[in-house]
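ok so for the tutorial part 2 we go from a plain amino acid sequence to predicted structure tokens. step 1 is just haveing the sequence, like this:
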Amino acid sequence: MNNTTGEGMMMPHHHKMMMMHMTFYWGKNAEILFSGWPGKNNTGMYILSLVFVFLICFLVECVSHSQLIKPGTSNLAAGLIQTFCHAIRVGLANMAMLAIMSFNGGVFLAAMAGHSLGFLIFGSRIFKKSPPPPTNDYHLPPMSTCC
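step 2 — the prediction. this is what the tokens look like for a chain of 147 residues:
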């Protein structure tokens, strides 16, 4: 049997054709971030993958709104801390984006919930006891200005 593509290129018989969704769909049969994960017909692993996406997005907000640099820190130390936090934030945000590109509705909702709860806890004034500090260079800029 001749297994060829539309251009006449030979395709090995051992490769499985994988359907990739290009629109949102609902269901637990999804591949998120890694080949074969969470697996077909495995509700527990699907729920674990949703928790994983939720935590990634929650951590993006945590890192985005953390103020790890104290006044008086040297410029070198402050710059290194900012760079490390920026790298972590961008890496996690890109991982969340790739998970959302599975076009699974549950993954999208988990990401939105993670970002929302993370912002509520770390970015909003709801849990702040004092007025917001004056703007300074001791925290990371918002994602919209860095990328």
